[in-house]
Amino acid sequence: MGAFQKAERKAAKLRLALAGPAGSGKTMSALRIAKGMAQELGLRIGVIDTEKRSSELYAGKNVRGALLPDGWELDFDVLPFNPPYEPRKYVKGIHVAAEEGIGILIIDSISHEWFGQGGILDMVDKAAKATKNQFTAWKVPTEEHNKMIEAILQADMHIIATMRTKTAYEVLKDERTGKTKPEKVGTTPIQREGMDFEFTTVLDLTVDGHVAISSKDRTGLFDGIPRVLTEDTGKELIEWLNGQ
Description:
Layout: E1 15-20, H1 26-41, E2 45-49, E3 60-61, E4 73-74, E5 77-80, H2 87-99, E6 104-108, H3 112-115, H4 120-131, H5 139-154, E7 158-173, E8 180-189, E9 201-205, E10 211-217, E11 227-228, H6 231-241
Parallel strand pairs: 1-7, 1-9, 2-5, 2-6, 6-7
Antiparallel strand pairs: 3-4, 7-8, 9-10, 10-11
Helix pairs in contact: 1-6, 2-5, 4-5
């Protein structure tokens, strides 16, 4: 056991989650933030891509897209993932990124680790069929999932993770008729409940305008105010990490 040391925010690494439905601009926003961070720090950007290499649509020079500035240019490295989306594959990908000197890692997306082929829900389903016991079927998948979380938290690099969202419903009682019915109450990330606790900040993106609003924010930079995510967002996050 070592001695206590003075706590310094600049020693911390960013853990940012971007959540939204298809078409909300998660990949584009993650890359723009990463570019701004890289401009400040001179770090190499890497992408773990589970989305059929969609990140590469934004690679190179003069790429045009929704809300991209004229003359957009970005060089980054990509590690494509194909099924099965096992948690251990994500762990290995994070380790490979560290070994290859990636300083800013985008994981696009971590939802596949939960619902994708070979992911947690698939692992539980197969285990339940084999053991006939739904409760014990969660044991190994949960252990594997926790290892992935630990890899994200312990990695010596900045990490931006994207998550798909789904519509959330609650069963509510009609006080007039006494009947119950499901009603839409918003959206929820496609990942294990509580996953948002692992991140410094969680931003929810909309399809209309690709606007982000914070559902969790330890930085105080977003404060529930809708905004479009750009390179300047990445620079602001680095300033916050440096205590400026």
